[in-house]
C-alpha cells in the first residue's frame, strides 16, 4: 500500500501544499517548527481520521481560517483511491473515498493502516492505563471494524450508566430495572472486547519479545501482561455485586474500561524498574510489533511514520532500525529530520534510495539521494 500524492489546504501551518511521494523512503527535512510533524499528522488524518497530536479537530485548521482540507491518493492492491478529509468550522468532519462520504466516519479506520513512532512514545510507559488502552485499541480497531463498533457502544453505555448513577445520588431515588437494562447490554459487549484483547495480546507478545531482543540483544526477559476485571471468575455476578460501590462512587467501577497492559522486564514493571535505555527499546519493540502484526492480519504493509526518531535514538538503536530498512521489512516510510546530512548519510550507508522533501521553503521540492 502506498500514498502516492497529498494535497493540503489550511491544515495547521500549511496554506497550500501538493506533493507526490515515492513508494519507498520519504524524508521530510526542515528546521524546527517548519511543519515536518504537521505533514506526518496530515497523513495520520488520512489513515485514522484524526490527528495524532491534537484531538481538537478545529485546532488543526490554519490560524485565522475556517476550514482545512487534506486529500490523499492511495494505491492499495493495485487499486487507486482518493481519500478526502475536510473540516469546516462549526460543522462535523467529513471523510470521502472516491467522492463518497461515509455515514459513520469510523468505517474508514483500518482501510489504510498506519503505524506512527514519535518521541512521545515513552508516554506509553510513563502515563496511566488510558494511554496504553488507546494504543492497543487503535491497533485492534484497524484490524476489525466490529471491535471499533463494540467499543463505541460499550463506552456510550458506560457513560449513560454513570450519568444514571449520578442522577440516583442527586435525586435520591433508585430504579433497579433501569440499571439492569444497562447491565444486560454492557456485559456481553465487555466479554467480546475482553476476548478480542486477550486473543490479540497472545499473538502480540511473542513478536514484541522478538523485536526487543533484536533491538538490544540483551538477555533480560521482557513481557507484557494484560490485566482485566474480566479475568475474575464469574465476572457477571461480580459486576452486578459492585452496585453498592458504583452507587456510592457514582460511576461504573468494574469493566474493560479499567483494563491495563503491564510492561515488564525480568518480571518487574518497566516504568519503575527499567532503565531509560530499556524503556526506549521497549517502546520501539511495541511499535515494530504493532507494524508486524498489522501487516500480518491486514495482509499489507501499513504506512510507517517516523517522527524525529534519529534525534531521540542512540546510534546502536538507529543501526538496528536501519537494518530493518535495509531488509525491506517496511513498505512506504515517511520520516522527519531537522538534519538532512544525517538522514542522507544513514541511507547512503545502506545503499537505499530516499526522496527528500524540504519543508519551510517557499516551494517544497524533491531531491533524490
Ligand atoms: N492551527 C495552526 N495554524 C497555523 N500554524 C500552526 C497550527 N498548528 C500548528 N502550527 C504551527 O506549526 C508549526 C509546528 O510545526 P511542526 O510541529 O510540524 O514542526 P516541526 O518541523 O516538526 O518542528 P520540530 O523539528 O521542532 O519537531 C509551529 O510553527 C506552529 O505554530
Ligand atoms: Mg516535529
List keywords for this structure.
Rossmann fold; Glutathione S-transferase Yfyf (Class Pi), Chain A, domain 2; 2 domains; 6-stranded mixed β-sheet; 12 helices; 15 strands; binds magnesium ion
Write a brief caption for the model.
This protein is α/β, with parallel strands linked by helices. The longest helix has 41 residues, at 176-216.
Strand content: 15-25%
The chain-level structural class is alpha/beta
- Using only C-alpha atoms, the radius of gyration works out to 22 Å
Give the total of domains. Answer: 2
Number of helices: 12
Note down, in words, how this protein is organized.
This protein is an alpha/beta fold and 369 residues long. The chain folds into two domains: 1-113 and 300-369, P-loop containing nucleotide triphosphate hydrolases (Rossmann fold); 127-299, RecF/RecN/SMC, N-terminal domain (Glutathione S-transferase Yfyf (Class Pi), Chain A, domain 2, Up-down Bundle). It contains twelve helices and 15 strands. A six-stranded antiparallel sheet has the order 2-1-4-5-6-7, covered by helices on one side. A six-stranded mixed sheet has the order 8-12-13-3-14-15, sandwiched between helices. Strands 9-10-11 form a three-stranded antiparallel sheet. The radius of gyration is 22 Å and the shape is globular. Magnesium ion (MG) binds next to helix 1.
Outline the secondary-structure elements.
Elements: E1 2-11, E2 14-20, E3 25-29, H1 36-48, E4 67-76, E5 79-88, E6 94-97, E7 100-101, E8 114-117, H2 123-126, H3 129-143, H4 145-171, H5 176-216, E9 222-227, H6 235-241, H7 243-249, E10 260-265, E11 268-269, H8 270-273, H9 276-298, E12 303-306, H10 309-312, H11 315-326, E13 333-337, H12 340-349, E14 354-358, E15 366-368
Helix pairs in contact: 3-4, 4-5, 4-7, 5-9
Bound molecules: adenosine-5'-triphosphate and magnesium ion (MG).
